[in-house]
Amino acid sequence: MFTTLLIANRGEIACRVAATARRLGIRTIAVYSDADAGAKHVVSCDAAVHIGASAARESYLKSETILQAALAHGAQAIHPGYGFLSENADFASACAKAGISFVGPPASAIAAMGSKSASKTLMEKAGVPLVPGYHGDTQEAEFLKQQAGLIGYPVMIKASAGGGGKGMRVVTSADDFASALASCKRESASSFNDDRVLIERYVQKPRHIEIQVFADSHGNAVYLFERDCSVQRRHQKVIEEAPAPGMTEERRRAMGEAAVAAARAVNYVGAGTVEFIVEPSDRFYFMEMNTRLQVEHPVTEMISGLDLVEWQLRVASGEALPLTQEQLTRCGHSIEARIYAENPDKNFLPSVGTLTYLALPPHAAFSNADIRVDGGVRMGDTISPFYDPMIAKLIVWGADRDQARARMVQALAQTRVVGVHTNVAFLTRLMTDQAFAAGDLDTGLIEQQRATLLPAPAPASHEALALAVAALLLCETAAVSDDDPWARTDGWRLNGLHRRVFSLLDQEGARSCVLHRQGIDQVLEMDGERYAFGWRLAKDDNTPALNIELTLGNLAVTGTVVPRGERFDVFSSGAMTALILKDPLKHAADGQSEPAGGLTAPMPGKVIAVHVAVGDKVKRGQALLVMEAMKMEHTIAAPGEGTVKELLYGVGDQVAEGAALITLA
Questions:
Q1: Given CA atoms 227, 228, 233, 239 in this order, what sign does their dihedral have?
Q2: What angle do CA 333, 338, 339 make, to 5 degrees?
Q3: Helices (H), 317-423
Q4: Of the options 3.30.750.24, 2.60.120.10, 2.40.50.100, 2.40.30.10, the CATH number for the domain spanning 598-664
Q5: Which helix (H) or strand (E) holds 20?
Q6: pLDDT digits (tens, 9 = 90+) for 524-572
Q7: Domain 132-201 matches domain 462-581 at the CATH topology level
Q8: What's the rounded mean pLDDT across residues 183-199?
Q9: Cβ count near 365 (within 10 Å)
Q10: pLDDT digits (tens, 9 = 90+) for 37-62
Q11: 451-503 tens-digit pLDDT
């Protein structure tokens, strides 16, 4: 076993590897960019090395710099995590030449599976079923369009070197093929430095099921059951679970044996995932092999009781697999939900900002308890535009799927994030969705259930409004001296009534809350209803949050409120409500700052395409320009008809969030 390990990654996977290595007595070295100087993974390791600027291509993708750091600090092995250099054959080869163990498969296996086109040719020879399509080297646009016509629409365009949902487009007609191909190639070149694509028949109502495989250098190979990753948005996984709902032992064995055959075809060593697309008829087709550990590996660990990172380290050090296929067992059901900094109401647009408040459910990190959290950020950290916006992964275990779902709902209710938009409320709705609960899964579930999963904003509840009022009063009380009764603003009067009106803005508009006080008796009036009102600070945990217990009529309400100036983020009954205190006097002099006709950047990023020129007439919904941020393309469309008056940025320009991009007359 190694004594020193360099972790060539960041975030939750770096923390995950560091925890297992520490348990095995292995010294760990972190690498970090400018943006990650104070990151959680840096302090989780025994030593840390700065490797460059914030952008990944200037730090985490600099293989020579990382290799030099490993040699300088006496590392015997490098764990690449996932993403970045984890599937880079040249990096794996360079490690081998330098005498450093690469915790992953040999470079030849990465190269063989790194190209979706080449890997499908290999799989065809190995007898693994394939989706009909074109996987060749000819990449002329017109030729690819002809192949799409021969396959029959709808088709899927995929980046040949891709993964993680990047560089993928579904095309339903020949008219849309050229623009989809161009977009796919741009995104592929940006993400993988390779713009080659393949074309496949788009399977209707497909499930995405993957098989975890492991192989060693002694000729042993096993499959560690399956994971269902069908619930996706923009071809990226949102929920993963194991075992797959409705999976029979016969089908599990057939898919597992096909996955092992795929691994053996390339002389695989280490952890890998063979991904299959499954039709409603249960026919399955090879999609790709990820030659690394997957983000969703914890659900396999939860049902098997194994530490897959430990297996990786043991196999990379030359040991045989700890168990044979016959010795592998599974128990119960596990679900993983990815907590992202993103706004589901705006097509899951990534969100950047500082984590003003972060509270996660009581859990045991990196273990097989009923609730586990894998995270790479802490309260006060920044979600930047440079990397994937994942905050944490919630993983739960249950004796069966229904118990696991119930535990996930509970865990999500205890997940509280302030400072960025998150998908927590969306995930809660997903867990209780009728189709998901019934195990009726396919990759289009989110779009099919859009009306219930992404409902219109609801008005703030009376409980949330009351908690915000209580928090405001607590803040005012804390701001004045107990020695000065004349500075008190809590409405106390020596004799007589006091009436105070609070105007709070929710997503629906202004909400009026009227506090009536006589002596020590208080009544809160909302929407014409009156409630006896009282509150107290339940506990002070030295965070920006106020944990409040209040009486609202006959109800006992508990909640957490995070005040940020005039904004109050209220967490209660498993939901988060954002409320803004409207102070007419404070803002009486404010002017209109938003110019009419402007189109602004929804987040920091780079302009990668401009589709219009000054003077062009545009229609509602027409694509005007394309921005790239967090490895994704975001199209800025016209909100209505008009004429392009001014283009404020060009291709290659970096744009700040909220910056005006185009002016329409």
A1: negative
A2: 130
A3: 401-413
A4: 2.40.50.100
A5: helix 11-23
A6: 999 999 999 999 998 777 889 999 999 999 999 999 999 998 999 999 9
A7: no
A8: 88
A9: 14
A10: 999 999 999 999 999 999 999 999 99
A11: 999 998 889 999 999 999 999 999 988 765 555 555 555 555 555 678 999 99
Q: Is 292 a catalytic residue?
A: yes
Burial class (CB in 10 A: 0-12, 13-18, 19+), 362: exposed
CA triplet 159, 275, 126: central angle to 5 degrees?
Answer: 95
pLDDT 10s digits, 258-283: 999 999 999 999 999 999 999 988 88
3-state secondary structure of 240: strand
Angle between helices 116-125 and 107-114 (to 10 degrees): 100
In order of 132, 433, 450, the CA distances from 453 in angstroms are 33, 8, 5
Burial class from Cβ neighbours inside 10 Å (0-12, 13-18, 19+) for residue 97 reads exposed
Determine phi and psi for 515, rounding to 5 degrees.
Answer: -100, 120
Determine what percent of the chain is predicted with pLDDT higher than 90: 70
> Token pair for residue 255?
């898919």
CA distance 72 to 429: 50
* Higher-confidence position of 332 and 621: 332
Ordered alpha helix ranges (H), 53-129: 63-72, 89-97, 107-114, 116-125
Other CB atoms closer than 10 Å to residue 104's CB: what's the count? 31
CATH topology of domain 332-455: D-amino Acid Aminotransferase; Chain A, domain 1 (3.30.470)
Concatenated DSSP letters of 463-491:
HHHHHHHHHHHHHHHHTS-TT-GGG--S-
What residue type is 646 in one-letter code?
E
Single pTM value for the model: 0.83
Which of 10, 27, 169, 292 is flagged as catalytic? 292
Structural domain spans, the chain: 4-103, 132-201, 205-330, 332-455, 462-581, 598-664
- CATH architecture designation of domain 462-581: 2-Layer Sandwich (3.30)
Q: What is the CA radius of gyration of the chain?
A: 27
Confidence of residue 598 (pLDDT cuts 50, 70, 90): low
Architecture of domain 132-201: 2-Layer Sandwich (3.30)
How many Cβ atoms are within 10 Å of 432's Cβ, its own excluded? 13
In the predicted structure, residue 338 carries a pLDDT above the cut 90: yes
In one letter, which amino acid is 36? D
pLDDT of residue 585 exceeding 60, the answer is no
CB 207 within 8 A of CB 282: no
Name the class of domain 4-103: alpha beta
Domain spanning 205-330, CATH architecture: 2-Layer Sandwich (3.30)
